[in-house]
Design brief:
heterodimer, A: about 375 residues, alpha/beta, FAD/NAD(P)-binding domain, 2 domains, seven-stranded mixed β-sheet, about 25% strand, B: alpha+beta, seven-stranded antiparallel β-sheet, 5 helices
C-alpha cells in the first residue's frame, strides 16, 4: 500500500494553498485534481481580486492560479495527480481514486478535503431548453475555451458570481439584456454592480424568472416583479428576447467525501447546505480529516486561500513539522478574521456561530 | 438607490466630490466606493499616503485631498474600478476625466467616443486625449477623456462605436 503524509483532495485555490503550506514545512504531500489542470475556478477568473496583498488582491484569478502552480511544481515534497478523481475514504484510512484509467489506493496520515462547491439550479417552466447555463459553464466556455455562449443573455442572480460573469460576457462582446435577482437588494459587491450599470445594463432586484420559451432553444424569458413575500405580482411581466439564460443562484458545498468519511454534518443555510463540523484549525470530527475552502462552507476565493493556509499549517503541525507553527497559525487565523470582520462577512460569521454551536473543539 | 440599481445616489456622489477649489487646483482622485468590503489595494498602492482609514481593510477609504496629486495609481489598482481621476485644470472650458477601462479594443488618442453617466446613459461624444495602459500584469487601462467642466463629475464610462466597412 502506498503511503503519504498528507493527501489534499482538490486543486482549486484552497487545496493548492493547503498543499504548499504543508509541503513548505516538510510534509510529503499528494495533491489530486479531477480536472486535467490545476486552478479550480481561479482559471476562469479574469477580474482583479479583492482583499489585501496577502490574498493576492489586485491580481486576476488566472494569474494567481499560475503563481500557485509555480510554487507547487517547484516543491519537491509535492506530487500532483491531475485527472484523478477520489472515489472513497474507508474506515481504515485508505483512500481510493481513479486516475489514468487505473484504480489507485493511498494511505495518507492526514487528508485535507478541498473539493469546492457545485452550482444550484432554479425551477421554472422550460428550464431544460438548450441555452440555459450555470454561470460556471458560461465562464468555462468563454474563459477556458474561448467560446461565447450566445448573443444576448439574461443573468439570473446579482451576487458576485452573477455580476462578475455579466461583466465577463460584456467584455467578450455578448450583450447582457438584464440582471435580475429575487432579493430586494444586490447581493454582490456594489462596485461590481456600478461598473455594469454604467455600461448600460439594468439590474432588477425583487424580480424572478417565470418561464423560458423557445422551440428548439431559448428564444426569450418572462420575468416579473416580486412582492415583499417573494410572490410574483400579476401584470408586471416583462418579455426579454434572449438566447441565453445564465443562472448564478448560489453554490452548495461538495461534501460527498465528508459524508463518506463519517464526518458529523450540519445544515448551515449561510454556507449553502450541509457542511462538516470542524474546529477552528479546520479539522473535522474525524481525526486527521480536514476541510477547507467552499467544501466547508461557500465563501469568497480569498477566504478559501486563507483557509488553505490554516489547514496546511494545521496538518503540518499535527505531524510535527514546522518551526514557528503557533505564530504562523495565529497570523493565518487573524487574516481570516479580518476578511470576515466587516458587513460583507456577517453571513459567514453567523454560519460559523451555528457550526460551532456546541462549543469550540481543539486539536489534541 | 445604489443597493437596488447599482447607481450611486446624488448624496453619495456629493460626499466624495472634491471642492471646486480643489478640483481647480489640479488632478485629484474621486473614490466612488460606498460599501464596506474586505479590500485595500488602493491604500497599499498610494505612494503619497493619501488614502486613510484603512487600518481595517473593511473600512471605506477616505482621501486626504491635500496629499493626493491625482497620479492615478489607485485608479489602476482598484479591483472594483471605482476610482476616477478628475483634472479640472486642463483648460478653461474642459476638464479631463481619467476612467478605468477593461474592454478591447482600447480607444485611440483623438478618437471620439460616446460618454456615459453612472446609469449608462449617453452624455454625448467626447475626445480621448490619452490612453494610459495599466501594464502586462494589471491590464486595466486609464482612458483620459476631455469633457466640459459641468460633466466632470457625471461622465464615468465610454462606449466605442466604430463604423465597420464591410466588403
Amino acid at each position: 500500500m502506498r503511503e503519504t503524509e498528507v493527501l489534499v483532495v482538490g486543486g482549486g485555490p484552497a487545496g493548492m494553498v493547503a498543499a504548499i503550506e504543508a509541503a513548505e514545512r516538510g510534509a510529503k504531500v499528494v495533491l489530486t485534481e479531477r480536472d486535467d489542470r490545476l486552478g479550480g475556478q481561479l482559471i476562469k477568473q479574469t477580474h482583479k481580486f479583492f482583499g489585501s496583498q496577502k490574498q493576492y488582491a489586485g491580481s486576476r484569478g488566472i494569474d494567481i492560479s499560475k503563481l500557485l502552480e509555480e510554487k507547487l511544481s517547484n516543491n519537491p515534497n509535492i506530487e500532483i495527480l491531475t485527472e484523478t478523481t477520489v472515489l472513497g475514504i474507508y474506515e481504515d484510512g485508505v483512500v481510493t481514486m481513479e486516475g489514468a484509467n487505473k484504480h489507485l489506493k493511498l494511505k495518507p496520515k492526514r487528508t485535507i478535503l478541498a473539493t469546492g462547491a457545485s452550482e444550484k439550479f432554479l425551477p421554472f417552466a422550460n428550464n431544460d431548453l438548450p441555452g440555459i447555463y450555470g454561470a460556471g459553464a458560461v465562464q468555462t466556455l468563454m474563459n477556458v475555451y474561448g467560446v461565447t455562449p450566445g448573443q444576448r443573455v439574461l443573468m439570473v442572480g446579482a451576487g458576485n458570481i452573477g455580476l462578475i460573469v455579466s461583466y465577463q460576457l460584456m467584455q467578450s462582446g455578448v450583450e447582457v439584456a438584464a440582471i435580475i435577482d429575487a432579493a430586494p437588494k444586490i447581493g454582490g459587491y456594489l462596485v461590481h454592480a456600478s461598473k455594469i450599470r454604467r455600461a448600460g445594463v439594468p439590474i432588477f432586484t425583487s424580480h424572478t424568472i417565470l418561464n423560458a420559451y423557445g422551440q428548439e432553444f431559448v428564444e426569450g424569458a418572462i420575468v416579473a416583479s416580486l412582492d415583499d413575500k417573494w410572490q410574483p405580482i400579476l401584470g408586471t411581466e416583462k418579455d426579454l428576447a434572449v438566447d441565453v439564460i445564465c443562472l448564478a443562484v448560489g453554490l452548495s458545498p461538495l461534501t460527498e467525501l465528508c459524508w463518506q468519511a463519517g464526518c458529523e454534518m450540519k445544515y448551515i443555510p449561510e454556507f449553502g447546505g450541509y457542511v462538516p463540523r470542524k474546529n477552528e484549525f479546520l479539522e473535522t470530527t474525524v481525526p486527521g480529516v480536514y476541510v477547507c475552502g467552499d467544501a466547508g462552507g461557500v465563501e469568497e476565493a480569498s477566504a478559501a486561500m486563507v483557509e488553505g493556509r490554516v489547514a496546511g499549517i494545521s496538518v503540518a503541525a499535527s505531524l510535527g513539522f514546522g518551526l514557528n507553527i503557533v505564530q504562523d497559525l495565529e497570523a493565518a487565523l487573524k487574516d481570516l478574521d479580518q476578511l470576515r470582520s466587516g458587513p460583507a462577512g456577517e453571513k459567514i460569521l453567523k454560519g460559523l456561530e451555528k457550526l460551532f454551536a456546541r462549543g469550540k473543539q481543539h486539536v489534541s | 438607490m445604489l443597493a437596488k440599481t447599482g447607481i450611486p445616489t446624488v448624496e453619495q456622489v456629493c460626499q466624495v466630490s472634491p471642492s471646486q477649489e480643489r478640483l481647480a487646483a489640479g488632478p485629484v482622485a474621486v473614490i466612488e466606493c460606498f460599501q464596506e468590503i474586505p479590500c485595500n489595494p488602493c491604500w497599499e498602492a498610494c505612494a503619497k499616503g493619501a488614502i486613510l482609514g484603512m487600518d481595517d481593510m473593511n473600512n471605506i477609504p477616505q482621501l486626504d485631498l491635500d496629499k493626493c496629486n491625482g497620479c492615478g495609481t489607485c485608479a489602476l489598482k482598484c479591483p472594483g474600478l471605482a476610482i476616477f481621476i478628475i483634472d479640472s485644470s486642463y483648460s478653461s472650458t474642459e476638464a479631463v476625466v481619467r476612467l478605468p477601462y477593461e474592454f478591447y479594443p482600447l480607444p485611440e488618442v483623438d478618437e471620439e467616443v460616446i460618454g456615459l453617466n453612472r446609469a449608462g446613459e449617453k452624455l454625448g461624444k467626447f475626445k480621448v486625449i490619452k490612453v494610459q495602459k495599466g501594464g502586462k500584469q494589471n491590464k486595466t487601462a486609464l482612458i483620459w477623456i476631455a469633457v466640459p467642466h459641468e460633466l466632470a463629475m457625471e461622465l464615468r464610462n465610454i462606449r466605442i462605436e466604430r463604423v465597420v466597412n464591410v466588403g
